[in-house]
Amino acid sequence: xTKTPEQPLGNLNPGLEILMAEDDAGHATLIxxxxxxxxxxxxxxxxxxxxQILDVLLGEVVxxxxxxxxxxxxxxxxxxxxxxxGEEVLRxxxxxxxxxxxxxxxxxxxxxxxxxxxxxxxxxNEYITKPVEYDQFVAVIQRLGFFLQIVRVPxx
Length: 156
Known about the structure:
Elements: E1 16-21, H1 25-37, E2 44-47, H2 50-62, E3 72-77, H3 86-95, E4 104-108, H4 113-122, E5 126-129, H5 134-148
Parallel strand pairs: 1-2, 1-3, 3-4, 4-5
Helix pairs in contact: 1-5, 2-3
């Protein structure tokens, strides 16, 4: 049977954990809720700044210092974040031999063409601008959720 958007596909990436680096708690809640509304059932972990996400990736994946390890990660990354910017997070992920396979989707309010170009040069997989208007924001995140259901992610 063929699935349609009315029939959510759910967790087609067993072992995939979605990491969300977003300093705006309201945006983080909207993103999580709207991804869930599309049928995404994978774990979603929220980080409020760039340093937190780097600490987790370097600690869990590289050093394997915790008992929590996902097979696969996908990172939703804001650009303007405290402590360490999204650009710096992206640069460090792409420079690391084990982390560079993690798909990184920039999800930000910044629509400056120079910023978009810079993120692609640093190796982001996709760049999505979050609309300011609520209904448009929800629609963009729901489209992202449907996209994430068909994306295949390699193990780290």
